[in-house]
Amino acid sequence: MATGSYRGLDYYGIDGLYTEEERAVRDSVRDFVSDRVMPTIGKHFTAGTFPHELVPVFGELGLLGPSLTGYGCPGVSPVAYGLICQELERGDSGIRSFCSVQSSLVMFPIWSYGSDAQKEKYLPAMAKGQLVGCFGLTEPDFGSNPSGMLTTARKTAGGYVLNGTKRWITSGSTAQVALVWAKLDGVVRGFLVPTTTKGFTARDIHGKWSLRASVTSELVLEDVEVGDDAILPGVSGMRGPLSCLSQARFGICFGVVGAAMACYDEALSYAKDRVQFSRPIAGYQLVQQKLVDMVSGITQAQLLCLQMGRLKEAGTLRPAQVSLAKRNNVSMARDIARDARDILGANGVTDEYQCGRHMLNLESVYTYEGTHDIHTLVVGQDVTGIAAFE
């Protein structure tokens, strides 16, 4: 794959607004992606495989649960965590998705709502990449409306019995523990389910043309028995899974900026080298307009992410503000990937270049963890005070 020497776009000197630690974290992950991810990710995407050999390396670099404290987690700032996601998604959305699920959708709820015993049992091993988790919320018929879930939990003398189906679950068939959200007496609760438990089955979803370098599964729970110690004691209702999704969406907002930067960098390099008629195509007005639109969109998204991170650091960030950034930044990145593919012409649809892979991946990111339309309605409700979901 032609990657060249990657140059991260910083048109407005935003680097100077990051702390020294934030820049150091970003640069270390950027080097890791260049050295370890980029040489093979195209082949994994084509083959539909995930580079499992990188999981322990993620742990060594502190990329699993990086914003958490204790239990072997480094406790970096919100902006540093976002920049980690940015650099990982510069490599591939599937790489960032793995780390996001592990960090924000499984480790975060255990850290926030788990018992001391649960934290000690799971978090240190998950931070090292020795234990992989998955997040079971979405169901075949309930995506944008997760509160309608049909998965149930029934109390027994020694614990709980779970029944239901979850779909579109990242790392579902490779995880050792699944955080399954189910209704117990009509109230949503979280349960930590070892994937070797009798009645638990994970089936991979094949035929994807997006997020191919990511494991996506369907989970089936048929009379799965877990003990009393499986339930997350610190949260009940939809507040639990929704708070996890806010954490993950925060990372997505940064992550897609990395994908957009990768596409811009590739398109700019290609346009300066590709000669048609009398000059490189970068010298033609229509191509320059596309490149300038990319610079504008990326710069706006970088500033939006930075302020979002500072709000999170101050403890004042609201979920609707995350929705605005998710909506804006994913749409921006999707448009840039398409324009980059356009600049590359026929070469843009080959696996020799990366913009086509990012273009396909971003179609999934545009949809998952809240579709573009749903985030539009979240922000609409926030600014008008009127819910338009029904």
Describe the structure.
With 390 residues, the chain is an alpha+beta fold. The protein has three domains: 14-127, Orthogonal Bundle (Butyryl-Coa Dehydrogenase, subunit A, domain 1); 133-230, Beta Barrel (Butyryl-CoA Dehydrogenase, subunit A, domain 2), CATH 2.40.110; 239-384, Butyryl-CoA Dehydrogenase, subunit A, domain 3 (Up-down Bundle), CATH 1.20.140. It is built from ten helices and eleven strands. It has helices at 20-47, 55-60, 78-91, 93-113, 116-127, 239-273, 285-314, 319-344, 355-367, 372-384, and strands at residues 69-70, 73-74, 133-136, 152-155, 159-170, 177-184, 187-194, 200-204, 216-227, 275-276, 279-280. Strand 6 (177-184) and strand 7 form a beta hairpin. The termini are far apart. The mean pLDDT is 96.
Q: Could you tell me the strand content as a percent range?
A: 15-25%
Major beta sheet, specifics?
Answer: 7 strands, mixed
CATH topology of the largest domain: Butyryl-CoA Dehydrogenase, subunit A, domain 3
Total individual domains: 3
CATH architecture of the largest domain: Up-down Bundle
Name the average pLDDT.
Answer: 96
Structural class: alpha+beta
Low-confidence stretches: none
Using the alpha-carbon principal axes, give the shape. globular
Q: How many DSSP H or I helices?
A: 10
CATH level 4 superfamily of the largest domain: Butyryl-CoA Dehydrogenase, subunit A, domain 3
CATH class of the largest domain: Mainly Alpha
Please report the total strand number as a whole number: 11
Helix content: 40-55%
Helix-strand pattern: HHEEHHHEEEEEEEHEEHHHH
Distance between the termini: 46 Å
Q: What is the C-alpha radius of gyration, as a whole number of Å?
A: 21 Å
